[in-house]
Amino acid sequence: MAAEPRWGSGGGAAALLLLLLVAAASICHAASNFLPVSDAHRSAALELFAPVDGSFGSLEETSEALQSFDILGIERRTNVRGSTCSSAVEVLGSSSSPVKDVFYALKVSSLLKCDVRQSQLEAIASRLKSVPSDASSLNDFYYSIGGLVLIKNQIPVVDVLLEDADKVFQAIKALSQSDGRWRYSSDNPVSSTYAAGMALETLAGVISLASNEIGQSRIDAVKNDILKLFDSIEKYDDGTFYFDEKVDGVGPLATTSSVVQGLTAFASTASGRVKLPEDNILGLTKYFLSIGIPGDAKEFFNQVNSLSCLENSRVSVPLILALPATVVSLTNKDKLKVRVTTALGSRSPPLKVKLVRAFISGSKDASVIENQELIFDSEGAFHILDLLPTSIDVGKYTFVFEIVLQDSEDAKVYVTGGQTKVPVYISAIIKIENAEISVLDSDLGSVDTQKKLNLGKEDDVSLAANHLQKLRLSFQLSTPHGHAFKPHQAILKLKHEKAEHIFLVGNSGKKFQDFLGLVEKFFYLSGRYDIQLSIGDAVMENSFCQDLGHVELDLPEAPEKAPRPAAQPDDPFSKYGPKAEISHIFRAPEKRPSENLSLAFLALTLLPFLGFLVGLLKLGVNLKNFPSAPVPAMFAILFHVGIGSILALYALFWLKLDLFTTLKALGLLGVFVMFVGHRILSHLASTSSKLKSA
User: Fold this and answer.
1) pLDDT tens digit sequence for 232-264
2) Ranges of each domain in the chain
3) Where does residue 514 fall: left (phi above 0), alpha (psi -120 to 50 degrees), or beta otherwise?
4) Architecture of domain 319-427
């Protein structure tokens, strides 16, 4: 059963690609820095829920748009109240409207404060109160109970209380399973995690509508179901928790949203607290934040609505520690800033943020910082590490923070999740020294030609070498603290007009290349080779891709069977342009017979048909045996129409239809003709037997 919606250039390109991969790696690792809802979400909401002709679409889509706007604090810029309220009132005024439509009409009228008469709501309440007694599925309970809750919140004087609330509660509870999941109906044996969220939200509505208090034992049984449901929760390595549906094809976002909305709704109405591990609540919040900004309106609503439920729940309100920027520049003397807010970006209660330790990511070395309290800036609501110690140099680090609430009473309301690990990149301008490029004699190792380089700026060196010599490139990189720096990528490229080759420079900053080993790779092509050096790292602010100059190579003549370079287009982008037109000369048509001969052949093909008609006349064919009774006459007519249709189909095949289309149509007509033909022949046989017996 489908889940119902909720109500609640070769070498240069290669070098550039490698540099982009370095940057991409930093983005992937920064995924554990979960940012709360911001103005970017508000801008996205205005785009995703843009009204068309003064309407957001269906009542369900309208309610999701309006709820999202309310949660994010967005003023409704477009006046949709008039047309939307008219649609909602029309649905509420019809006694034949489905319960689901009534539910969303009530929700929209509540959000827009539509003018709905009290007498009309009383009639709707009376109708909805009768649904649970005959409900056969969880959806029936869900929309009817949800509608009554909306009426209660809109006009409290309307009688929406359930006299048999305990019986309804037990009927819904009967759909629960031993693993904490629920079925959509008693006839459907398949259990669902998504349905569990719907059931919890429905039970919360029953509790709020009960004229008599629901027994505590029944509520405790549901709390136990919640604990069992959370035994099946799944986890990512970054500390995010989520629920995944095993049936129905519902995605993890919709499933997790369903559980969160059901959990928070039940916790807000049931007596006593629902005790769940703090890391589960914080992990669910981080899961919704890790999605970023969904591009689908339904997913966007599920995200912000779930975060709103968590922020306003009686379970625990999660606090999110986030870094506005995970890259700190030593060159610019940036300060490390930390902000602690709720998931929707609201300010946190009074607290302190401690930097427990910081260490180089992927290293077993000791911590470079330990036990340091950050300074709170009340103006920007940041916790700041003012100065980085000299023990922190350029590189990737893992900072471990801890939130300490100043008021012990806040610990009963908020959940901090213990220690939080965040990757931080310390970047700087790397100092480049002693850069030079030389041509060496292979045998003696003596320097034939040596040129100084000014890396990071313009260079245009000119070298000459033969296949018996070597090329040496050397440079030294150092951090602002004077430590040697090893870049993630250092690439040297030699490019001829017909060939090129890429070399990886070692982390030592030196590269020796014997030209003898490159003769075949360069296809024995002598001439000018441009030299290009690319050095990049995620923490190197002055990464570059620079042309150094050129080297004139004198290579030996190519042997007879040596491979040749592929032909290079004049324009490297010409291969993406329009292709040459392909011309094809068709075979000259065969000589056709004369028109008179063709017409004579056509007359010969029609002779059998004419003979058939003459034979029918000689046999005295007539319609005396045509059935007179209405039903047999109808079958007789359909039989002849079917025969005629088959003949017409043959004619169409001859004129325009292809074989496959004809066979499909013939198959359908054949079955039809066989059926009606059998009926009329059976009638004729029965009539004939009666005449003989008479």
Assistant:
1) 999 998 889 999 987 767 899 999 999 999 999
2) 37-116, 132-315, 319-427, 431-566, 627-686
3) beta
4) Sandwich (2.60)
